[in-house]
Amino acid sequence: MDLMKEKASKIKLLAFDVDGVMTDGSITYDENGVEYKTFNAKDGHGLAKMAKNGFITAIITGRNNGTVDRRACDLRVTEVYQGVKNKLPILEAIMQKYELDFSQVAYMGDDEPDICILEKVAIAACPSDAVSKVQDVCNFIARRDGGRGAVRELCDFVFDNQKI
What would the CATH number be for the domain defined by 3-160? Predict the structure, then answer.
């Protein structure tokens, strides 16, 4: 079995950044300063499938937005952390809560604040349009862009390589 498939077979936790990963990175405001995000339905189906099949799913994002809470609730995301500047301690706390180690974690990020996690996890994933510094540390680069199916690619890859 190739190395990435072997790593995928051990994953129990999938964690994601939001802007540029679950969305295309656009930030839209209305005239009252309310921020809007657009999510991809195929990505959502992938996340919901993982939750339904017993995987721990997590969102760790630097911004605060009510739409993220709503989306996470709709998809039954297990752990949601917003307004996080240093993401690694949050991921480590989640891992401790579920008695996991880095070999059981996949994380998808797209920009420099994600590198501290990507350098440690078994599957370090990014969308195809992630910044080059992120792509350089990833062992899974999706064919699709953020907010355009990259999350689904990772979910399907992990799910399809489980020994279920």
Answer: 3.40.50.1000
pLDDT in tens, 88-110: 999 999 999 999 999 999 999 99
HEC states along the chain?
CCHHHHHHHCCCEEEECCCCCCCCCCCEECCCCCEECCCCHHHHHHHHHHHHCCCEEEEECCCCCHHHHHHHHHCCCCEEECCCCCHHHHHHHHHHHCCCCHHHEEEECCCHHHHHHHCCCCEEEECCCCCHHHHCCCCEECCCCCCCCHHHHHHHHHHHCCCC
Q: What is the pLDDT of residues 22-66, one digit of tens each?
A: 999 998 899 998 888 899 999 999 999 999 999 999 999 998 888
